Amino acid sequence: MKDLYLCFSLEDRDYAFEVRHLTEILALPTITTIPGTALFLKGVINIRGKIIPVMDVRLRFDMSFKPYHERTCVLLVELDGLPLGLIVDKVNDVLRIPTENIDLAPKIGESKSSRFIYATGRVGDSVKILINLQRLLTEEETVLIKDIPGN
Predict the structure, then answer these.
(1) Residues in contact with 27: Cβ distance below 8 Å, sequence separation at least 6, in sequence order
(2) Which residues make Cβ contacts (< 8 Å) with residue 8, sequence separation at least 6?
(3) Exposed/middle/buried for 78, CB within 10 Å: 0-12, 13-18, 19+?
(4) Residue 85 lies in a domain
């Protein structure tokens, strides 16, 4: 699992995170909305009797909403014992990105999404934006998600 990254797309950008965080990839299931949650939290899904909150990564990264389509999927990840579904435009592949091909991301601007990015990975002629899944939720948001019934 060392150096393996799951690559996915949002808009025309390629992102990736370490495969070790991935539990499962799902076709977009039915999402039950929960009133009063942040806009990027789309609701919850029921996977084999387990209630899992889902986040639209586009909205978390301050991108505009895009209607879901046949390639839209949910990446089930586990963050410090908390299961979370990540809605992405499409999954690309799993790539090996050796440590020597990873460069820490320069601090560019103060956009919200820059806090999620920790590095870039060079793969051939392309660059993947490496995200830190642990930073997708603030401590406060994590507490709120843990309070959702079923968690």
Answers:
(1) 73, 74
(2) 14, 15, 16, 75, 88, 89, 90, 91, 92
(3) middle
(4) yes
Contacts of 83 (CB under 8 A, 6+ apart): 23, 50, 52, 53, 76, 77, 151
Does some domain include residue 151? no
What CATH number does the domain containing 106 carry? 2.40.50.180
| Element of type H or E holding 144 | helix 139-146
Q: pLDDT 10s per residue in the chain (151 long)?
A: 789 999 999 988 999 999 999 999 999 999 999 888 888 999 999 999 999 999 999 999 989 999 999 999 999 999 888 899 999 999 999 999 999 999 987 665 555 557 788 899 999 999 999 999 988 888 888 877 777 666 5
Q: Considering the entire predicted model, what is its pTM?
A: 0.89
Rounded distance between C-alpha atoms, residue 143 and residue 100, angstroms: 36
CA distance 121 to 17: 10
